[in-house]
Amino acid sequence: MSELRQSPLHAEHEKLGASFTAFGPWNMPLKYGKELDEHHAVRNAVGMFDLSHMGEIWVNGPDAAAFLSYALISNMETVKNGKAKYSMIVAEDGGIIDDLISYRFSDTKFLVVPNAGNTDVVWEAFNQRIEGFDVELNNESLDVAMIALQGPNAAKVLVEQVAEESKEEVENLPYYAATMAKVADVDTIVARTGYTGEDGFELMIYNADATKLWQLFIDQDGVTPCGLASRDSLRLEAGMPLYGNELSRDITPVEAGMGVAFKKKTADFVGAEILRQRLEEGPKQVIKALTSSERRAARTGAEIYAGEQLVGTVTSGQPSPTLGHPIALALVDTAANLEEGAEVEVDIRGKRYPFTVTKTPFYSREK
């Protein structure tokens, strides 16, 4: 087994007493203190995450949009400059290789951000699909750091450090958009996407500038360093899928509820024939949300029953720190016809507990 990669901020995490965990090929902070405190910090103020394990692949050239429309399931040619799009890349058989976000900066320039454990396979797939397209690929994944500020006070904390000429643009940046700005005199890609169910920003900088920005924000009142444990509980409350749990090579975007991404797409793309057929036939399984008034939480792999019939498996589950009761995402058989409000039982260590099918997100901030 190869040695785990370290974030350019690893020494900063050690100073803060972080405990670490393997995440893909990276050694990343799991938590700094109590993960519940970190979770609540994001819900109530500002949490700061090191996301330097995420990939950064530039796609440049006259055919950049056409290439990504072929390589991914979505129509990327309709993405406006300055905006971002969530999509998926699939194998020839339709299985999901990764879910990712693409940012369009100009007619000929995109930045694609894959997940940590999938960056290498996405890079390989892009290179296999490039033939016939006038594009240049540049993988900066090991050269770029990413810091995320998430929470209701994230905009206020960030804008205070943004150069005067960019303050208004950053403060008013729409959701799923990105821009360039100087943050504490550091050239920064500022994106407003997020994975927590809160307002927030991702700051992409070169590794050499990462420590400066991290230390700048960690010294601000109300900013709490947060690890992967709270990131997972936050994304689950927001009903967002995690690759390796809800998403994998064993299911297609149709099962994942992403058929809408290519439903009206006429252009060819990798996996198109199989996915269009699957969409027409309908999925045999779908991702559903479950909630319970009991105390016992369903964990990944727990079996789900409708009466005595096994109808699915929990893909993610834990007690919701914000809501105070167990929540879960699951892959269930469509034949079971489990609509919102349906009652099921989940086998937790040999005993069945009642759960109810609900809708996502489990949590969303009132506007």
Automatic annotation (TrEMBL):
<dbReference type="GO" id="GO:0019464">
    <property type="term" value="P:glycine decarboxylation via glycine cleavage system"/>
</dbReference>
<comment type="subunit">
    <text>The glycine cleavage system is composed of four proteins: P, T, L and H.</text>
</comment>
<dbReference type="Pfam" id="PF08669">
    <property type="entry name" value="GCV_T_C"/>
</dbReference>
<dbReference type="InterPro" id="IPR022903">
    <property type="entry name" value="GcvT_bac"/>
</dbReference>
<feature type="binding site">
    <location>
        <position position="202"/>
    </location>
    <ligand>
        <name>substrate</name>
    </ligand>
</feature>
<dbReference type="InterPro" id="IPR028896">
    <property type="entry name" value="GcvT/YgfZ/DmdA"/>
</dbReference>
<dbReference type="Pfam" id="PF01571">
    <property type="entry name" value="GCV_T"/>
</dbReference>
<keyword id="KW-0808">Transferase</keyword>
<dbReference type="InterPro" id="IPR006222">
    <property type="entry name" value="GCVT_N"/>
</dbReference>
<dbReference type="GO" id="GO:0005960">
    <property type="term" value="C:glycine cleavage complex"/>
</dbReference>
<comment type="function">
    <text>The glycine cleavage system catalyzes the degradation of glycine.</text>
</comment>
<dbReference type="GO" id="GO:0005829">
    <property type="term" value="C:cytosol"/>
</dbReference>
<dbReference type="InterPro" id="IPR013977">
    <property type="entry name" value="GcvT_C"/>
</dbReference>
<dbReference type="GO" id="GO:0004047">
    <property type="term" value="F:aminomethyltransferase activity"/>
</dbReference>
<keyword id="KW-0032">Aminotransferase</keyword>
<feature type="domain" description="Aminomethyltransferase C-terminal">
    <location>
        <begin position="293"/>
        <end position="363"/>
    </location>
</feature>
<dbReference type="InterPro" id="IPR006223">
    <property type="entry name" value="GcvT"/>
</dbReference>
<dbReference type="InterPro" id="IPR027266">
    <property type="entry name" value="TrmE/GcvT-like"/>
</dbReference>
<dbReference type="GO" id="GO:0008483">
    <property type="term" value="F:transaminase activity"/>
</dbReference>
<dbReference type="InterPro" id="IPR029043">
    <property type="entry name" value="GcvT/YgfZ_C"/>
</dbReference>
<feature type="domain" description="GCVT N-terminal">
    <location>
        <begin position="9"/>
        <end position="265"/>
    </location>
</feature>
<protein>
    <recommendedName>
        <fullName>Aminomethyltransferase</fullName>
        <ecNumber>2.1.2.10</ecNumber>
    </recommendedName>
</protein>
<comment type="similarity">
    <text>Belongs to the GcvT family.</text>
</comment>
